[in-house]
Amino acid sequence: MNGTIGAPMNAKDLKKLGGGRDVDRLAALAAAALAETAADRGLLDVAVGEVESPVGELLLAVTPRGLAYVAFEDEERDDLLARLSRQLSPRILEHPKATDEVRRQLDEYFSGERTRFELKLDRRLMRGIARDVLAATAKVPFGRTTTYGTLAERIGRPRASRAVGNALGSNPIPIVVPCHRVLRAGGDVGGYAGGPSRKRRLLTLEGSLPPSLV
Amino acid sequence: MAVELPPFSEFLAEHKGTVYRFLMAAVGPHEADDAFQETFVSALRAYPRLTDASKLDRWVLRIASRKAIDHHRAASRRAIPSGDLPEQAASPGGRPELDSDLRAAVASLPPKQRVAVVHRHVLDRSYADVAEMMGISEEAARANVYQGVKKLRELMT
Question: Of the listed A179, A189, A205, A209, which one is catalytic?
């Protein structure tokens, strides 16, 4: 097919115009720079970043409205991004800078310097009864705990403690919305979307459980 | 059967290499970064309205082709006349000179020929693809590639 191209120019020379070994690195740099451009032009709907923590790496999703999602590392990343894409917007990019403030406050929380988060939240991923349940959960202070039953009463649905449990299990913003502070009546820590050991770890960090139980 | 739109991050990861290679060849290494940003910003703007996610590769290359052609027009308004290109090309033929001479020769092509040649000979696309990505007929795609390659050969001998 390239027979029309004669020496000294040949098809191989033309192909080289696409860049040598460098091109993948350059493309990666250009792709990484896109998020900033997109954010400047108001085209970035979901910015994704990560933070290391004592309960493992956390993935953070921030929208112009606020923090929308905190994921533990065992949540499969591609599935998660696909879900955020469907439920929030497909305009998703890695943009760690947009998650800086959340990262800073989480770092302070895990190092014991912060007992209250001051972050805007995007609650669009909380559906139905979960909105009320998680709004009530957000009021349980650092170092205190409550029970599913108490929370059910607080939202005016005293017999709905199972629904309350489900709503907490679906919390899109764990740690920041402290669903780990909701325990079973009788003191058993109960379930947790991130697993009971993470829940115990967070409760220990807050002084609600003695260190020996971790 | 509609294909679900992937998150933009995934779309970018999958197509960044091809788009960058295309732009390196079509607008040159100095302008490739800017053209890359422009291409993907346009893509991002239109992305949520896409109804068919099955041809994203051709979709983004169509945007990149437009940017390369517009870019050429903007650049040629600024540029100095390229009258001394043949002399440059006639310089003794070591490899580095060949590369930069070839770049200069490609840069001197009319934009449609340049973009068509790059799709065909850098990205190895079929004439049907070239036509689709440039919004022209397959005959016009063949003619643009043919004329472009012919001119390059003249400049490079």
Answer: A179
> Which residue shows structure tokens 């041809």?
B55
Residue A79 lies in a domain: yes
Q: Hey, of B3, B4, B5, B9, which one would you mutate to test binding to chain A, going by the most A CBs within 10 A of its CB?
A: B9
The residue of chain A with its CA nearest to that of B93 is A8
Q: Are residues A146 and A173 in the same domain?
A: yes
Specify whether domain B8-156 bears CATH 1.20.140.160.
Answer: yes
Say yes or no: B37 contacts chain A, CB-CB below 8 A. yes
Tell whether omega for the bond before A172 is within 30 degrees of 0, i.e. cis: no
Domain boundary among A110, A141, A169: A110
In a domain, A116, yes or no: no
Q: Parallel, antiparallel, or unpaired: how do β-strands A46-51 and A58-63 relate?
A: antiparallel
43-82 of A, contacting B, C-beta below 8 A: 43-44, 48, 78, 81-82
- Find the helix or strand (DSSP H, E) in which A199 lies: helix A196-205
A171 is catalytic: no
Cα–Cα distance, A34 to B12 (Å, whole number): 10
Contact in structure between A133 and A167 (CB atoms under 8 Å): yes
| Backbone phi and psi for residue A59, each to the nearest 5 degrees, phi listed first | -95, 135
Of A4, A17, A85, the CB nearest to B24: A17
* Beta carbons of B44 and A89 less than 8 Å apart: no
**Which residues numbered 109-148 in A keep a CB inside 8 Å of some CB on B?**
none
Q: Which residue has the higher pLDDT, A26 or A212?
A: A26
Mean residue pLDDT of chain A comes to 91
Low-confidence ranges of chain B (pLDDT < 50): 80-95
Confidence of residue A5 (pLDDT cuts 50, 70, 90): very low
pLDDT digits (tens, 9 = 90+) for B102-131: 889 999 999 999 999 999 999 999 999 999
Domain boundary pick from A78, A110, A142: A110
